[in-house]
Every structure is written in structure tokens, then in C-alpha cells.
Amino acid sequence: MSEKKVITLICERAADLDSACSASGEVKDVEGLHVVKLPCSGMIQPLMIEAALKAGAAGVIVTGCQIGDCYYREGNRMIRERLLGERTPGLKKNVDRRRILALWLSRPQKERFLSEAKEFVNYVRKLTD
User: Cβ contacts of residue 111 below 8 Å, gap of 6+?
Assistant: First the structure.
């Protein structure tokens, strides 16, 4: 596939994508979407997002638990605040924020994730063509 990939950095307790992903992390229903699971979205650093975009990803989807429902108490709030520039470290000013999507989902919201991810993949590919 020559299309640029979209990387999803996802909390393992957010939307349950196990049945939607191959063993390598590719999402079966959304071509070019690759999932990287982390114990908590609070582990996501802006540098990880910047590195993915610099390495050629069309976009990055940050997915955590619903705000107020973090298993580790504050992880989802920390990354949300970093993405909004309200907490350090934040994204560098030159990062194209149109290429980043943040979703805050509960475990059973797989279909919502897939729907929003598919729409975002199509959107960022148009931006990067």
C-alpha cells in the first residue's frame, strides 16, 4: 500500500479494538490505520506525535478513556491538556494540528472509534496529497 498510514496511540482500556485489529496492529475495517496500544493515554508524549508525523504518518489519533474515567486517575486529562497547550510539555508550534485527532472513549465504543477514524483517515490523506 502506498498510502501514508495514520497512527493511533490508544489506551488499552479505551475503545476495545482487539477484534478489529490484526496481530500487527492494522485495523481491518480502516485501510492504512495502525494501532499502538499503551497502558494509559497519559504515557503519550507530544514528542511521540511529532515523531510519527515527521516520519511520514498522514496523521495521529490519540485515544484515551472518557475524561473523568481514567483507570490511572489523571492520564487522559494530562494528554488532553498537553494537546491543548495547557500543560507542558506541549506540541511544538509548527505541528499541524489538523493532522491530530483526540478521542475519549469507553471500552464498548469500538464502532464510534471506527467511524471517526475512517473519516479522519480520509480527511488527513486529502491534506497530505
Answer: none
Note the pLDDT tens digit of each residue in 46-102.
999 999 999 999 999 999 999 999 999 999 999 999 999 999 999 999 999 999 999
Would you say residue 87 lies in a domain?
A: yes
Task: Give the mean pLDDT of 21-27.
Answer: 93
Buried b vs exposed e over 28-39: b needs ≥16 C-beta within 10 Å?
Answer: eebebbbbebbe
CA distance 56 to 14: 26
**Look-up: residue for cell 489506551?**
11
Give the Cα separation of 112 and 103 in Å (integer).
Answer: 10
Whole-number Å distance between alpha carbons of 91 and 83? 6
* CATH code of the domain in which 120 resides: 3.40.50
| Residue 92, in any domain of the structure | yes
Residue 1 lies in a domain: no
What's the pTM? Answer: 0.95
